[in-house]
């Protein structure tokens, strides 16, 4: 599966896309807006988190997701994904949220990572 990134118009998303382009990593960019994600896609992302929704939600969200059922929370995020953190990166095996230069390196193929350490 090709790397897919979910972005907004903010500095974190710009840093992620610039870094990926600078390191020749292919990706599909999806802007986070209404009805971009479906329930199945959100459930897959959730299955790769350690702490469920809290790993994907902005700290500043005013919605009390803990008070909602999973289905209600997913429906809400499908209709309005603004509570989601921007720069969610997922390749079918690994999930990273936000821009962290050390963590994002995991999306560079292993052979290229080894070469960059040598060179």
UniProtKB/TrEMBL annotation:
Signal peptide, first to last residue: none
Family listed: Belongs to the ArsC family.
Protein name: Spx/MgsR family transcriptional regulator
Phylogenetic placement of the source organism: Bacteria, Bacillati, Bacillota, Bacilli, Lactobacillales
């Amino acid at each position: 599966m090709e790397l897919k990134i979910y972005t907004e118009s903010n500095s974190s998303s710009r840093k992620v896309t610039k870094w990926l382009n600078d390191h020749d990593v292919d990706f599909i960019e999806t802007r986070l807006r209404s009805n971009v994600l479906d329930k199945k896609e959100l459930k897959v992302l959730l299955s790769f988190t350690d702490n469920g929704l809290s790993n994907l939600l902005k700290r500043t969200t005013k919605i009390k997701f803990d008070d909602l059922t999973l289905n209600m929370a997913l429906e809400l995020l499908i209709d309005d994904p603004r509570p989601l953190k921007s720069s969610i990166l997922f390749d079918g095996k690994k999930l990273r949220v936000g821009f962290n230069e050390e963590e994002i390196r995991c999306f560079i193929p292993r052979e290229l990572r080894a070469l960059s350490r040598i060179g």
